[in-house]
Write a structure and sequence with these properties.
The structure holds two protein chains of two kinds.
Chain A: H1 18-27, H2 30-52, E1 76-80, E2 90-94, H3 104-124, E3 136-142, E4 149-151, E5 156-159, H4 173-188, H5 195-217, E6 227-228, E7 243-244, E8 253-254, E9 258-259, H6 274-278, H7 284-297, H8 305-313, H9 324-339, H10 344-355
Parallel strand pairs in A: 1-3, 3-5
Antiparallel strand pairs in A: 1-2, 4-5, 6-7, 8-9
Chain B: E1 6-14, H1 20-23, E2 26-29, H2 35-47, E3 56-57, E4 68-75, E5 80-87, H3 92-122
Parallel strand pairs in B: 3-5
Antiparallel strand pairs in B: 1-2, 1-4, 4-5
Classes of the chains: A alpha/beta, B alpha+beta.
Chain lengths: 365, 123
């Protein structure tokens, strides 16, 4: 993003998150305040420009990065939190640096960010999270026995797991892809992280996370596991992964964790106040719809099903409050525009959504 | 603060997935702890003035995802107060309390698994 700020380029503020800029703008010296306000102004202007270049209704997404496709490459930084909860920690590996001896989490994070960047660049021509070459930061060894990985809107953060329930969270490439995809989703659609829009947000992160792994391994839809986070559970947990896109609700059934609560059909939609309104629960429904579409189209998931889902994510009709039905209609419309009305691709999309209880009629498109 | 009787711990949201078993609060009976550990938890709760803490601590940034709130309830027999704290917890004293309780929760869940496994063996 910073390389678009031509007139007031300030290398210090390029990696400074907005809330820090706000603090400097409020409390810094006059010189610091002026620089911070210039940077914020440029950042907001650039974002407005990007918004105006978002894919309009029904038109496939086009890359906005000024860099030629052949020159797209990631800029990664891996930080070590020293098992504290202070972010971001110490830099332990920079882009192009040697692997960190004896630190699997650091090297998995580095490679995982690279694989995710490569997927979005190769398949969609996207230049990082913001399609403008945004630096990719990951923090490993966060907290003490910390059982989670999350995206805080600035960086990806990975715990080591407690060894009792979870292994280190970098162990699963689709989890790394999932967290980075949250950045892409926020950049394109700003889906609310609550109720159905939140579950759609979670599902899209799973869809792209799964495709990152499939693309990295060059797996066909038939060869893919369609699991999210396999390898993450410690040895004594009765489960295979966090979620299954192929068969939501079947990923784990464990005395401590409980049973996988994901539905795969609207008939079983879970109304709950927990989990931000069930964002990690009801995501099973659109996850399974994507699985159905990808299996019906065959080959590699990213070639057709993934392309349709990505174009839909970038479509202006996807708003922060978009739910399953609206998103389904947009995917079906895009399939018709890209491959032809009534094409096998459009029929597969409609059938995929129908399989989870979401009907998309021709009159809806 | 009177001597604490019970501490309850849970997480909601739990992070990158939802686990029904982890959503259920784990209850720590202070009377069941050795006196040194009970005194330590009591001091951590007093140091952070737990009953004066707001009900929600921390707000995720716009666009954040898969974040976790840890939820702690302290009951001293006359007062009961619940705090939902976004992880990472910025206040070091509050973080120390949550971390100390978290270690007990881990041990309780490990014992729960062992008991379940023992039950199965006996079947």
């Amino acid at each position: 993003m910073c390389r678009h700020v031509q007139h007031h380029f300030n290398p210090i503020f390029c990696i400074v998150p907005p809330h820090v800029l706000d603090g400097i703008a409020n409390n810094g010296t006059p010189k610091q305040r002026a620089a911070a306000l210039r940077t914020k102004s440029a950042d907001n202007t650039f974002r407005a420009l990007r918004m105006s270049r978002q894919s309009p209704q029904g038109i496939p997404a086009q890359p906005v990065s000024p860099r030629p496709l052949a020159e797209l490459k990631p800029m990664r930084t891996i930080y070590h939190a020293r098992n504290q909860q202070n972010l971001p920690g110490e830099v332990i590996r920079l882009e192009g640096g040697e692997p960190v001896a004896g630190d699997d989490a650091a090297n998995e994070a580095y490679e995982g960010l690279g694989a995710t960047y490569t997927f979005f660049a190769d398949v969609f021509g996207r230049d990082s999270i913001d399609d403008a070459g945004m630096q990719l930061d990951a923090v490993v060894h966060f907290g003490d026995d910390y059982n989670n990985a999350f995206w805080n809107s600035v960086q990806m953060v990975f715990g080591d797991g407690d060894g009792e329930l979870f292994n280190r969270f970098t162990i699963s490439l689709d989890v790394i892809g999932h967290e980075l995809a949250h950045g892409v989703i926020e950049d394109e659609a700003q889906l609310q992280y609550l109720n159905q829009p939140g579950a759609l947000n979670e599902s899209l992160a799973d869809v792209f996370g799964s495709m990152v792994r499939q693309y990295h391994r060059k797996e066909s839809v038939k060869d893919a596991t369609w699991l999210i986070g396999d390898g993450l559970f410690a040895g004594n947990v009765n489960g295979v992964a966090l979620r299954s896109m192929k068969d939501p609700g079947s990923a784990f059934n464990d005395p401590v964790l409980g049973k996988d609560p994901q539905p795969k059909h609207m008939d079983d939609f879970v109304n709950t106040f927990s989990d931000n309104g069930g964002v990690h629960i009801n995501s099973g429904i659109p996850n399974h719809a994507f699985y159905q579409v990808a299996m019906a189209l065959g080959g590699y998931s990213w070639e057709k099903a993934g392309r349709i889902w990505y174009d839909a994510l970038c479509d202006q009709r996807v708003r922060p409050n978009t739910g399953f039905v609206r998103f389904a209609r947009i995917t079906a419309d895009i399939a018709g525009r890209r491959y032809g009305v009534g094409s096998k691709e459009q029929q597969a999309v409609r059938a995929g959504w129908a399989a989870v209880g979401i009907g998309v009629q021709a009159a809806d498109l | 603060m009177n001597p604490i009787r019970h501490i309850e711990f849970s997480s909601d949201p739990q992070g990158g997935a939802f686990f029904p078993g982890l959503a259920k609060p784990v209850v720590i009976d202070m009377a069941a702890l050795d006196s040194g550990e009970a005194a330590r938890l009591q001091k951590l709760a007093e140091d952070v003035r737990f009953f004066d803490q707001p009900a929600v601590v921390g707000t995720p940034r716009p666009g954040a995802a898969d974040y976790r709130y840890d939820v702690l309830t302290v009951d001293d027999g006359t007062k009961r107060h619940t705090v939902r704290a976004l992880v990472p917890i910025e206040d070091p004293a509050l973080r120390d309390l949550f971390d100390a309780v978290g270690r007990h929760v881990k041990a309780i869940r490990a014992a729960q698994r062992k008991a379940q496994a023992g039950g199965k063996t006996g079947e």
